[in-house]
Amino acid sequence: MDPVELATSCTMPPVLSRSAVVEQPKTLRSARLKVDTYNVAAVAPYQAMPVAGPVITHHKSTALPVVEPHPEMTEEEREARIAEMIDSYMKKLAERTHHHMGYPYNLDFDYGLLEGLTKFSINNLGDPFIESNYGVHSREFEVGVLNWFARLWEIDEEEYWGYITTCGTEGNLHGILVGRENFPDGIMYASAESHYSVFKAARMYRMQAEKIPTLESGEIDYDELKDALIANQGKPAILNLNIGTTVKGAVDDLDHVLDMLKEAGYNEDRFFIHCDGALFGMMMPFLRRDAPMVTFRKPIGSVSVSGHKFVGAPVPCGVVITRFVRARRKETWARGWTS
Ligand SMILES: *Cc1c(COP(=O)(O)O)cnc(C)c1O
């Protein structure tokens, strides 16, 4: 189906009101954003465009106005309208899902058995390994899942720390934070094809960062990385290595980088490697043995994955695993700085 036709065929659900849809007042932002002259090249490659040409379709979407129910509506009428709205939205989601492509997401899942859980306010607040006094939690599942990933990436249950994140982005933010806490004066290195969350982390933590060019494959340019490491020998290195880049699925060669660090004079106590395994972190251990394995038997500091990419999940989630000694170097922090 033509993407433009598809976009317009999926109308937004009806509004909970007897009156017609309220005209949205012109906002400053839409006035400033001249969609027809917008600089397409300036938009991040992950943004919802430009299948339909130079016009950025998602800036044109209308926001549903939030309105009070009509005073003359009965309770039944109100409920019927809400049900109609949800049903209409579900149809739209089904159609969009049916035509979904271009993103490395697994959409083939059915978690119908979990539906009843939406009745509860489940919150694993604080450190997953420490019982909290908030009783409505799922720690037994969380730690079980973490133990599974620890086995996958070959780290002893006693030696890791981690948690279920809200997404791959959060895993990157946490892994790089652990690196930064261990090496406050470290320089972050990551390839130009890294996910945008990686350089966002560097900005958030006010770290010096070096964006290393990539090879045509999408892997980090090893020679450029080595030159940068040698030039900055005086400072520790915090590296983000990609285990599957978003667009090309490129896997940085962990073994090669470890050799290079040694050659450039970085001992294990002067570097921290975070592996952004959002895409392939889960499947690497199952590939041919000559692929560069992601394993804590090598001197890496952390690994993260995205739960809604390869696994497929209806809500964003992810996993991050770090070494306990690294994560606990600063006693004051864990997930959310709560423990
Ligand atoms: C998608 C992606 C992320 C971010 O994952 P989210 O779960 O969407 O936050 C990070 N790194 C890479 C390589 C990705 O493809």
UniProtKB/TrEMBL annotation:
Organism domain of life: Eukaryota
Record flagged with keyword Lyase: yes
GO terms under biological process: carboxylic acid metabolic process
Cofactor(s) required for function per UniProt: pyridoxal 5'-phosphate
Record GO terms (molecular function): carboxy-lyase activity; pyridoxal phosphate binding
Keywords in alphabetical order: Decarboxylase, Lyase, Pyridoxal phosphate
Modified residues (N6-(pyridoxal phosphate)lysine): 309
NCBIfam families found in the cross-reference section: PRK02769.1
Family in the record: Belongs to the group II decarboxylase family.
PANTHER family attached to this UniProt entry: PTHR46101, SERINE DECARBOXYLASE (PTHR46101:SF2)
Protein name: Histidine decarboxylase
Source species of the chain: Volvox reticuliferus
